[in-house]
C-alpha cells in the first residue's frame, strides 16, 4: 500500500489547532489520582470523539479494583476501528489519570494555558499530550488511507499512577492486551520524541519492622528501643548494601545514567506513637519501628537474590546485635520488562523517527515502571513500547508542559509507524 508521506505529514501539520484544543480540553478535566476524579467524563469525551469517526467504543469499569467506588468509578474506554481487510491490530494506550498538582506552580495546573509554543498544566506531558498526539495521528492516517487493512485501537485507561490495577491490568486480565485481539502496543508516555522506550527496571517494595519492648521513657534501659534497632538497619544498609548496589550495572539502556545501577530508596519510616498524633506524647520506649523500602532492580538480577541481599543483612544483625528482631512484609513487586529491538513495533517506530526527525533514535529503558508491565506479564504480549512527546523529567513536576511541535512530530512518527505495521512494511 503506497503512502504519500508528505501528504500525511501535511495533514498532521494542518491539525495543529485541533491538536492544541484536544490537549487543552483533556487537561481541563482534572482526573487526579488519587482519588481517581473525573474518569468517566474523560473516558466518555474520548469515546464520543472516536465513535464519531467510526470506532466501536467499549466502556469498561474496573469493578472491585482498588479504589473503585460509585463516587470514583475506575472507568476505562477502549475504541476499535476494523480495517478494510484482515491484518494486525495496532493499539495506542494512554492513561487518563494525572498526579496531584502539588505546590510551586506559576500557571493554573488545570487551565491548560498556551504560552508561545507550549501548553502548561498537570498532565500535559504525562500524558494527555501523548494521548492527543496519538488520536490526531490515527485520525490523519485514516483520512489519508481510509482503506488500510488491520485494526486500530485507542484506549484511555485509569490508575496508571497508582499501579494500573483499575486500568490496564484489569483490561489485560480480560484479554484486551493479548493476541489474537492485539498485536502491537504503543504507549505514548513522555519519553522524548526521538527515543524508543523498550521497557523498565523491576520493583520490590517491602516493609521492614524492627521490634522492641515498651517501657517508661524516663527509664529506656528497662525497655528495648525499636527505633535504635532500625538505626542499626540503616547503618548496615549504608555500609554494606548501598555500596553493593552501586557496583551493579545493567546492559539495559536505562536513562538517566544513575539508574543504570541498582537503587534503593528509603520511602518512609515511622517508630513510636501512632502516625498523625499531634499532642504531647506519652513517655514511652517504642516497641515497633517500620520502614518502607523501594528497591529498583535490573534485568540481570533475580528477585529472589534481591530479597536475600536485604534479609541476609537483617539476619546478620539478628545474630550480632543484642535483642534484635525484625519482620518483613512484601508490598509490591514488578519484574523488569524489555522488548526485543528486533520486534516489529520497535523497528517501525525507530524507522519512523528517522523519517520524521532525520536522526537515529535512542533506545532507552525507563527507571520506573509503567503499564507495559501488565501488557507483558498478564497480556503476554512482547510487542509493546513506550513512545511519545514530552520531556520525561517534567512529569509530576510543577509547571509541567508539553511543546506543541513535539506533539506534532511524534504524531507523524506514530501515524507512519502505525501505517507500516498495518501494511507489513517494517523498514
Ligand atoms: Zn505517565
Question: What integer is the average pLDDT?
Answer: 96
N→C terminal distance: 14 Å
Q: What is the total number of structural domains?
A: 2
Note the total helix count: 10
CA-atom Rg in angstroms = 24 Å
Let me know the largest β-sheet.
Answer: 6 strands, mixed
List the helices and strands and how they pair.
Layout: H1 5-14, H2 16-27, H3 39-51, E1 56-61, E2 75-82, E3 89-95, E4 113-115, E5 118-120, H4 124-144, E6 151-157, H5 168-173, E7 184-187, E8 195-200, E9 202-211, H6 226-247, E10 263-271, E11 288-297, H7 303-320, E12 326-334, E13 337-338, H8 344-357, E14 362-366, H9 372-377, E15 384-386, E16 401-403, H10 404-423
Parallel strand pairs: 3-6, 3-7, 7-15, 8-14
Antiparallel strand pairs: 1-2, 2-6, 4-5, 5-16, 8-13, 9-11, 9-12, 10-11
Helix pairs in contact: 1-4, 1-10, 2-4, 4-10, 6-7, 8-10
The structure holds zinc ion.
Q: Describe it for me?
A:
This protein has helices at about 5-15, 15-25, 40-50, 125-145, 170-175, 225-245, 305-320, 345-355, 370-375, 405-425, and strands at about 55-60, 75-80, 90-95, 115, 120, 150-155, 185, 195-200, 200-210, 265-270, 290-295, 325-335, 335-340, 360-365, 385, 400-405. The protein is of the alpha/beta class. The chain has 2 domains: about 5-200 and about 335-425, 3-Layer(aba) Sandwich (Aminopeptidase), CATH 3.40.630.10; about 200-335, Alpha-Beta Plaits, CATH 3.30.70.360. The strands form 4 sheets. A 6-stranded mixed β-sheet has the order 1-2-6-3-7-15. A 4-stranded antiparallel β-sheet has the order 10-11-9-12, covered by helices on one side. A 3-stranded antiparallel β-sheet has the order 4-5-16. The mean pLDDT is about 95. Bound molecules: zinc ion. Zinc ion binds next to helix 4.
Amino acid at each position: 500500500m503506497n503512502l504519500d508521506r508528505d501528504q500525511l505529514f501535511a495533514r498532521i501539520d494542518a491539525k495543529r489547532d485541533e491538536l492544541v484544543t484536544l490537549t487543552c480540553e483533556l487537561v481541563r478535566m482534572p482526573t487526579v489520582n488519587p482519588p481517581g476524579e473525573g474518569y468517566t467524563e474523560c473516558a466518555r469525551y474520548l469515546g464520543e470523539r472516536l465513535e464519531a469517526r467510526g470506532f466501536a467504543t467499549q466502556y469498561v469499569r474496573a469493578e472491585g479494583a482498588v479504589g473503585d467506588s460509585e463516587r470514583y468509578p475506575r472507568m476505562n474506554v477502549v475504541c476499535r476501528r476494523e480495517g478494510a481487510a484482515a491484518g494486525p491490530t495496532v493499539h495506542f494506550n494512554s492513561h487518563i489519570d494525572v498526579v496531584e498538582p502539588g505546590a510551586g506552580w506559576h500557571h493554573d495546573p488545570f487551565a491548560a494555558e498556551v504560552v508561545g509554543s507550549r501548553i502548561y498544566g498537570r498532565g500535559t506531558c504525562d500524558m494527555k499530550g501523548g494521548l492527543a498526539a496519538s488520536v490526531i495521528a490515527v485520525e490523519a492516517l485514516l483520512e489519508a488511507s481510509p482503506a488500510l487493512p488491520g485494526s486500530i485501537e485507542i484506549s484511555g485507561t485509569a490508575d496508571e499512577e497508582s499501579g494500573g490495577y483499575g486500568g490496564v491490568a484489569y483490561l489485560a486480565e480480560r484479554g484486551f492486551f493479548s493476541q489474537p485481539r492485539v498485536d502491537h502496543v504503543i504507549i505514548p508516555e513522555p519519553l522524548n520524541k526521538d527515543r524508543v522506550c523498550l521497557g523498565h527496571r523491576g520493583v520490590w517494595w517491602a516493609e521492614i519492622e524492627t521490634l522492641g519492648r515498651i517501657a517508661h521513657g524516663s527509664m529506656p534501659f528497662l525497655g528495648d528501643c525499636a527505633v535504635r534497632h532500625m538505626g542499626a538497619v540503616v547503618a548496615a544498609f549504608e555500609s554494606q548494601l548501598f555500596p553493593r548496589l552501586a557496583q551493579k550495572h545493567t546492559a539495559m539502556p536505562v536513562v538517566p545514567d544513575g539508574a543504570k545501577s541498582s537503587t534503593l530508596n528509603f520511602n518512609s519510616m515511622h517508630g513510636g506513637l501512632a502516625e498523625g498524633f499531634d499532642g504531647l506524647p506519652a513517655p514511652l520506649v517504642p516497641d515497633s519501628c517500620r520502614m518502607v523500602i523501594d528497591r529498583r532492580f535490573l534485568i540481570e538480577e533475580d528477585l529472589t537474590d534481591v530479597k536475600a541481599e536485604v534479609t541476609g543483612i537483617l539476619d546478620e544483625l539478628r545474630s550480632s546485635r543484642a535483642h534484635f528482631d525484625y519482620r518483613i512484609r512484601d508490598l509490591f513487586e514488578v519484574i523488569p520488562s524489555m522488548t526485543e529491538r528486533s520486534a516489529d513495533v520497535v523497528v517501525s517506530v525507530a524507522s519512523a523517527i528517522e523519517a520524521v526527525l532525520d536522526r537515529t533514535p535512542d533506545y532507552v529503558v525507563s527507571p520506573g515502571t509503567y503499564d507495559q508491565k501488565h501488557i507483558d506479564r498478564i497480556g503476554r504480549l512482547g510487542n509493546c513500547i513506550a513512545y511519545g512527546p514530552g520531556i520525561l523529567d517534567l512529569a509530576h513536576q510543577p509547571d509541567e508542559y508539553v511543546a506543541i511541535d513535539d506533539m506534532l512530530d511524534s504524531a507523524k512518527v506514530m501515524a507512519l509507524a502505525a501505517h507500516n505495521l498495518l501494511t507489513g512494511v517494517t523498514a
